[in-house]
Design goal:
Pfam family, one: 7tm_4
CATH superfamily: Rhodopsin 7-helix transmembrane proteins
Subcellular location: Cell membrane; Membrane
Strand content: under 5%
Radius of gyration: 22 Å
Protein name: Olfactory receptor
Largest sheet: 3 strands, mixed
Structural class: mainly alpha
GO cellular component, one term: plasma membrane
CATH architecture: Up-down Bundle
Helix content: over 70%
Number of strands: 3
Order of helices and strands: EHHHEHHHEHHHHH
Family: Belongs to the G-protein coupled receptor 1 family.
Number of domains: 1
Shape: globular
Strand order of the largest sheet: 2-1-3
Length: about 300
């Protein structure tokens, strides 16, 4: 551990969501169901898109990548949180904590940029429909995807660089259910006020820039279709509505946590639960319920599965 920032702290203690034994049992049952819903819901989208050739389009290519990120983001925090509800001592190793923070910021940053890529896709589909498949070529899609993960990696690496040389020699209690970077930095055995501001500014800036890019893209789309017939405008808005809902669910917690970082810990815990669990759960529900193509594809797969069972 000496090579890892000269720290004498080998593990951190997570306080979790509540000290009440009754609430922890209820949380265990409830969040187990939610996590199962996250995995099954996103897997259902993956299977549907992969096995239905009609969904082999740029929009759904980006959608299944969003599903992969959502599953991964939830999986780096939720399983441990669920298991910890049954433990008296909720601990995580230093490297486990470091890994958790790295991948949360990697996936969170990548998801924000992927939502920007999806907004670009919607702009081309709505404003330049005749050239959609030409503009959103496989090469462009790969570039958008690699750009999203690259931004996420650079963001996460810059955040973790702040941690490498911090000494941890005293308190090791994190008032959360996972290793939240701002809370962990506060435990270092030195003045970290400036460092906390840099961490918050880094995450807050990425969130704000991505949100502004999305806002501009929506304004451009609405401006471009304003003179179309009522049916055309309604169709464009219907296409955007699911994406706008997902963006709101993804960015709202980040805005409160990083743009207003000095709120109460209880509020931050609720927002963190929402971001790491309920957003990945709601994304597949939103895209399924508001998308006729996905629902039709799921119905087709279910019918084929039923027919295959009857022939056996």
């Amino acid at each position: 551990m000496e090579s890892a920032n000269h720290s004498v702290v080998s593990e951190f203690i997570l306080l979790g969501l509540s000290k009440s034994q009754t609430l922890q049992i209820l949380f265990f049952l409830g969040f187990s169901v939610v996590y199962a819903g996250i995995v099954l819901g996103n897997l259902l989208i993956l299977v549907t898109v992969i096995f239905d050739s009609r969904l082999h389009t740029p929009m759904y290519f980006l959608l299944i990548n969003l599903s992969c990120i959502d599953m991964s983001l939830a999986s780096f925090t939720t399983p441990k949180m669920i298991v910890d509800f049954l433990r008296k001592q909720k601990t995580i190793s230093w490297w486990g904590c470091y890994s958790q923070m790295f991948f949360i910021h990697l996936l969170g940053g990548s998801e924000m940029m992927l939502l920007v890529a999806m907004a670009i896709d919607r702009y081309v589909a709505i404003c330049k429909p005749l050239h959609y498949m030409t503009i959103m070529s496989p090469r462009v899609l790969i570039w958008l995807l690699l750009s999203s993960y690259t931004v996420g990696f650079v963001h996460s690496s810059s955040q973790m660089a702040f941690m490498l040389n911090l000494p941890f020699c005293g308190p090791n209690v994190v008032d959360s259910f996972f290793c939240d970077l701002p809370l962990v930095i506060k435990l270092a055995c030195k003045d970290t006020y400036l460092l906390q501001l840099l961490v918050i500014a880094d995450s807050g800036l990425l969130s704000l820039v991505c949100f502004l890019l999305l806002l501009v893209s929506y304004m451009v789309i609405i401006y471009s279709v304003r003179h179309r017939a009522a049916s055309g405008f309604a169709k464009a808005f219907s296409t955007l509505s699911a994406h706008i809902t997902v963006v709101t669910l993804s960015f709202a917690p980040c805005v409160f946590i990083y743009v207003w970082p000095f709120s109460r810990y209880s509020v931050d815990k609720i927002l963190s639960v929402f971001y790491t669990m309920f957003t990945p759960l709601l994304n597949p529900i939103i895209y399924t319920l508001r998308n006729q193509e996905v629902k039709a594809a799921m119905k087709k797969i279910r019918t084929q599965h039923t027919n295959s069972k009857q022939t056996l």
